[in-house]
Specification:
It contains 5 helices and 5 strands, in the order E-E-H-H-H-H-H-E-E-E. By secondary structure, it is mainly alpha-helical. The strands form 2 sheets. Strands 3-4-5 form a 3-stranded antiparallel sheet, with no helix packed on it. A two-stranded antiparallel sheet has the order 1-2. The two termini are 13 Å apart.
């Protein structure tokens, strides 16, 4: 996925493999922020029977807050690193979606430097996966044709986010070497 494979995300972000993950982050970040907004929920003031007592709100979900902070810091650092590597001047601070769009606007130049393109893809993938985990999204898996070379079962599955093919047979769990997808 690294390099000029021409991926275009639903948000119009075009470029190498990083484009897919940048588009995913731009789509998912508002949901992550929404998860931090206090609302009615179960907590210490909950009444018997499961109904919340008047005036109670759900506590802050620290794993969501930590994920949002990690992603925010990661995007800021990534933008600074990209601009420095490309010899561009620093730009004004901006919200994370704006910074992501600025990075996306540089993808053509980023893709010309394979090591930078790989770094951008790795970091944006990491942040998109962290965002998805905080939102409770399970990792997608895809059935792979063929049989496991170890246990001969038809239980091979590809995990695209990890770029891995694994036998999901509980007694085997063999991981195929290389890109078998």
């Amino acid at each position: 996925m690294t390099g000029g494979d021409g991926v275009t995300g639903r948000d119009g972000v075009t470029g190498g493999g990083g484009a897919l993950w940048i588009a995913s982050l731009i789509r998912s970040l508002p949901e992550l922020v929404e998860e931090l907004v206090p609302g009615p929920g179960r907590g210490p003031g909950e009444r018997r029977g499961g109904a919340p007592a008047a005036g109670t709100v759900a506590p802050v979900r620290l794993h969501v807050s930590d994920a949002l902070r990690d992603i925010t810091d990661g995007v800021v650092e990534l933008e600074e690193a990209v601009r420095e590597r490309l010899g561009l001047r620093r730009v004004a601070a901006a919200p994370v979606p704006v910074r992501l769009r600025r990075i996306a606007g540089l993808l053509e130049r980023i893709d010309a430097l394979p090591d930078l393109a790989a770094h951008v893809e790795d970091e944006t993938r990491r942040m998109a996966r962290r965002c998805a985990r905080a939102l409770g999204d399970p990792e997608q898996l895809v059935r792979v044709a063929g049989r496991c070379p170890v246990c001969d079962s038809v239980s091979l599955r590809a995990f695209p986010e990890r770029a891995a093919v694994i036998c999901v047979n509980p007694v085997c769990r063999h991981t195929l070497e290389g890109d078998a997808s």
